[in-house]
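Protein: Lon protease homolog
Species: Coemansia erecta
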Amino acid sequence: FMAGSLSATATTAQSLAAAKRSLVGQRRPVLLSSPITEPKRWFQNSVVTRKKRDDDGNDESKGLKKNPKASDEESKKPVQQEAEDKDEGVKESENKDNAEAEEAEEKGGRRRRVQRRSENDKAAADTAEGKGSQAPRDPLAQLKRAVGVADYAQGQQSFIPDNYPNVMMLPITRRPLFPSLYKSIQVQDPQVIGALRELVERGEPYVATFMLKDDEKDVDSIKNTGEVHEIGVFSRIMSIYVSPNPEDKHLTVALYPWRRVRMKRILDAPAAKADEAADKGSSEVPKTAAEGEDAGSTGSEVVDASKVLDSIKADYDFTAIEVENIEDEPYDAKDATISATMSEIVSVLREITTMNPMFREQIHHFASAQVSKAVFENPSKLADFAAALSGGSSEELQDILSDLNVATRLEKALVVLKKELMNAQLQNKISKDVEAKISKRQRDFYLMEQLKGIKRELGLESDGKDKLIEQFKAKAETLQMPAEVKKVFDEEVGKLAHLEPAASEFNVTRNYLDWLTQIPWGKYSVEDYDLQRAKVVLDEDHYGLEDVKQRILEFIAVGKLRGAVQGKILCFVGPPGVGKTSIGKSIARSLSREFYRFSVGGLTDVAEIKVHRRTYVGAMPGKVVQALKRVQTENPLLLIDEIDKLGRGHQGDPASALLELLDPEQNNAFLDHYMDVPVDLSRVLFVCTANVTDTIPGPLLDRMEVIRLSGYMADEKLSIAQRYLAPQAKEAAGLEGSAVTLSDEAVGALVRNYCRESGVRNLKKHIEKIFRKAALKVVESGVAVDAVDTADSGAESKEADAADAKAEAAKPRRMTVPSSYSLEISAAGLKDYVGPPVFESDRLYEQTPAGVVMGLAWTSMGGSALYIESVVEATVSNGSSSGEGSSDDDGAGRGRLHTTGQLGDVMKESSVLAYTYVRSLMNRRYPMNKFFSNNIIHLHVPEGATPKDGPSAGVTMTTALLSLALNRPVRPDVAMTGELTLTGRVLKIGGLKEKTIAARRSGVTRILFPKANLADWEELPDNVKQGIEGCPIEWYEQIPALVGLD
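Structure follows.
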């Protein structure tokens, strides 16, 4: 129900303004009906219209003009009676004018209505903007003109007709309307909206509202009477408003309910047909609801209204109904029961207003209308008013509306008001209980603070919270917090001081302050810029890796010149086991920096990097903040391991979270969600490791400086094993200082026959296994002796405690190997320690047959030899199948190629391209050789369990097919790599160093590689190229002469 309910008998400007404000709200009026006292051009011929319109000075018009100063009886004189006093000549002229106007209206059609609507809208807009030239200057007159409510106090007549049988029906939901109480409803049906606009424009702004029986149903028209209740109200449209939001298509209609009506039927046929006789004077004019009383409407008005309804019905689809007025049953206003019920209703209303502010505001608005006395003295109006204010159910309110017995209606209204009173009392009780609990907490807090103050004054020991706050403040004094962080710290400390230790937020704040003071704000480790020391440290821990060592020395040199070192982001990319992770520790030691490592391999939760906010249960800072707490310095070396194996899941993309962390332009103010303060990471040296760069997102890879670590060669592995791996494994096996040794030949055999991978991790495992088995032999031989002297342990053992003696006996005693015992592990005895050799040789063929060529491949484990084999599967013609001069003209074009070896899509395309190119080459060089036309070729790549892909085997496949076609083998000491185009050009490839290492391991003396890789070849170390001839190739036609096929 609307907050500002007003009675229809409001007379003052204050009540009218309140009604206008309550209806308009925040909406923009787009169509206001003209005052009902003004004429509409469609009905210029009607008596009521002419009575309002004619003011030009003629006698007839002046006779019909209403006199505002007339007495009440004269002002209520029926308009129809005044019209009958006019002469017949005037009536005939009026009827003639009426017929002409109707005929012109029918011819004008919809176009004239649209034009008039546009004119009315424009006039309304001009009036709203203050531009209307005919707007009344009197404010009260303006309000009356907009709202259209007559002034009953001055005795003016209401222009709401008492007899209006045919009317447009609007169904409403959940709450019915009650007479004399304003209400606004919303209409969404475009057809009904158009009909309402037409009603207002044509001066017939009347509708009947009935409540739907189904509360869940929300429609603007009905098809049968059973959808709504029988009793409703006849209402006048006060104003129509549209939402300022263009997407909101509904219309808000402000209604003033006038009287109760009963719906008789839904009008299917035009209503005007039933009243045609009224125009001709052959039918009786409908009577008003109260017989014998003249309410100011005539039969001419009813006929005109029916015509308007039929005209609108022809253009719009809405529900038109026939209604009849209903009156209350006769009652005695002085009846004791009625008077007592009214007094009780007023008492309940007064009691509710003391508890419910909304009721109080509604009653206040109602009382300000100066008509509350009339309502409170009228039993029928008081019952309606009480029901409208209550929050009863839709069935209860409709029952009150339908009840025509005033006494029972008052009783039902009192029942719903009593329910409202009980609800208000319950709400008041709940509110008081909540206030009492809050007051108790405030009282307890006040007393607790007083108790703390008394203890403090007496010098008694303070509680744990005060000590905790003092500890936080003392720790913060030792840190150089930035101003922003210091401000947050002070705020959190102040919050902690006002929290009770039992509160859940107390632990959250305490943990946050603990982390805030654990970060080493302003603490830096002293860096060492000594280049010579850095070289020694790097060489002590790692053999080779010259690129990495050179980059670290450059980093130190720049820091020495500038006096300060900014953080960098390095990424070491290489096969497993080449020392990517361990080199990070060596770099930190050479720079005198703290070291912290964490792995992101398989990480799918972005919260590990940016974490959750501290409001979540169990939240804690991310990996970076944890690292700073651990190392207690703001310039450590952070190693992010396995960055190429980052995952992605429903919890976010960690790679995207690392963008801010690894960006030198942003990480000076890295924001951890838990800390929620900027952390400076600009001096942190980030080192990332990866096996490949293909799986690293491009934006992340762009932020890092990539340094590639190639695999180790055999001589490098030998040196690493002798200098690092063997001594470490010997010490771990307990053989330190003994004469147990591993010969160089044995290490070389391990590298050649057991550990061919690029790294040294597998080599380390085998060496450790050898020394463990050697330790087993030493212990089994019985030559080991106790290392602890137990000669004088007897006296001491008597005085020892029994528990200590038992613990001492449980400890294993260390033994040593006598210097007289020696054991040398040779290459011949390796099989006793690590089993038979895994690899005999990298070469599959000592002498390659025709159709077989050695290629070179690159994997994440390093380089390897890749053989390409081709054979003739079947001959499809009787001609010769080999030889330079062989020819056969039959069956040309029936040869084909198929491949095996688990090849990827790119490698399959390379084989097709090689087959096409070699056929083209054969046609140019050996036009009489029809080998490929007469044979089905099978091309295979060994090690079929291993997936293979890439374009660099193009020249190798072509050479294999050419060797098969010419039936000539290639040189066995030649290997090749390169991508081939369809025209025979050889394109650049990657991993030349790894492939060269693999070729050398396979005993190759000549490598064919693309000319575009010549710069990469020249940068290779001499020990890698030693004994190998490099042949840069630009076009494939250079290859046959180099491999012995020319």
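Remarks: Residues 1-158, 271-299, 788-798, 879-892 have pLDDT under 50 and may be disordered.
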